[in-house]
Amino acid sequence: MDTQVQLSLYPVRPRGQLLKWVGNKFRYAHLIVGYLPEDYTTYIEPFVGTGAILATLSPRRAIAGDSLTPLIDLWLTVQARPQVLIDYYEQVISEFNLERLATYQRILRKYNSSPNGLDLAVLSRTCYGGVVRFTREGRMSTPIGPHRPVSPESFATRVREWRHRVSGAEFVNQSYAETMSMAKGGDLIYCDPPYVDSQQILYGSQDFHFSDLVAEIRRCKDRGVRIALSIDGKKKSGGKVVDLRIESGIFEREIYLDCGSSMLKRFQNGGDVMIGEDVHDRLLLTW
């Protein structure tokens, strides 16, 4: 296990996360970025998600892709029309603070009827624990959370900061394979795909196979691209190590990052405090 990263080298992450989403890397994005090289041509994220690594690294040139259309719509709005997002969030949260459940259910129905980035942002901030879960039909199914969502003032500050941090990115709505095929020798890819142990819980019948991703990583490495992969590591406070069955010769280093207790397990158990359910993510590097 490689732990040779000094605290002084860690970059500074954004002051607050823009989207609340279980499994996102915001809490330790600065640790992951601390392992990434600086001498790359283009930074590429084929599963950009909440953009925590992208925003922390804040590269001059990046390609950030995702197959979830409303998510890419949201990022394009952050880049080009941030005030639209700020105003919409303020409007809905003002209503939410008066009638929590009715407002949440209305926005959830609206999103499921016509998926869009604005409602996805609101739902991520108000659903239970940021557990953005989809049914087999692609409908979001997470109930309302008990917490108070971040204030419109704080959200507006975050939108403006994140807009600056992702200004160098080209956002693309396409499969991860299409995004990775754009990588050339000298580029750097960071992958944060659906996790093997939680894919069906969170993403329904999403058509994703980890072995296909590994094959794509192999092809990129053969072209001179460096790849970092976040994936399942240890669960149940180290009592379970997820067996990924990756062939040898692809990754050179393996690092484990302490993620604390599992929010997904807490969600599945009705909010009870989880004991013995600490999680350690695995970070794999091809160099």
Descriptive account of the structure:
The protein has eleven helices and eight strands. It is α/β, with parallel strands linked by helices and 287 residues long. It has a single domain, classed as 3-Layer(aba) Sandwich (Rossmann fold). Strands 1, 2, 3, 4, 5, 6, 7 and 8 form an eight-stranded mixed β-sheet that branches. The chain is globular. The two termini are 14 Å apart. The model is unreliable at 1-9 and 264-269 (pLDDT under 50).
Largest sheet: 8 strands, mixed
For the record, what CATH class applies?
A: Alpha Beta
CATH architecture: 3-Layer(aba) Sandwich
Write down the domain tally: 1
Quote the CATH topology: Rossmann fold
**Terminal Cα separation, in Å?**
14 Å
Question: Mean pLDDT, nearest integer?
Answer: 89
Tally the helices.
11
Number of strands: 8
Strand fraction equals 15-25%
**Principal-axis shape:** globular
The radius of gyration computed from the alpha-carbon positions, rounded to a whole number of angstroms, is 19 Å
Structural class by helix and strand composition = alpha/beta
What is the CATH homology-level superfamily? Vaccinia Virus protein VP39
**Helical proportion, percent range:** 25-40%
SSE series: HEHEHHHHHEHEHHEEEHE
Low-confidence stretches: 1-9, 264-269
Concise structural overview:
This protein is an alpha/beta fold and 287 residues long. It contains 11 helices and 8 strands. 37% of the residues lie in helices and 16% in strands.
